[in-house]
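Q: What structure does this chain adopt?
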Amino acid sequence: SGPEALALQERVMDAWLGFARSGEPGHAGLPDWRPYDVQTRLAMELGRRCAPLSVKRSAATAAGTPTSASW
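A:
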């Protein structure tokens, strides 16, 4: 709870609303949010820091073995 939590809540709600309206979750309260691409493997980290984040696959996922933590 507190001001940081409320600010994050607003950013996440705005991202969902934008995605529902246009398919684009990015908005003025977030850095540039590019569509996911298997080559760059960037996702958006939402928290105290909101920024693009490199998503790395585990060896099991890379080998095609599904896991509960698969992206």
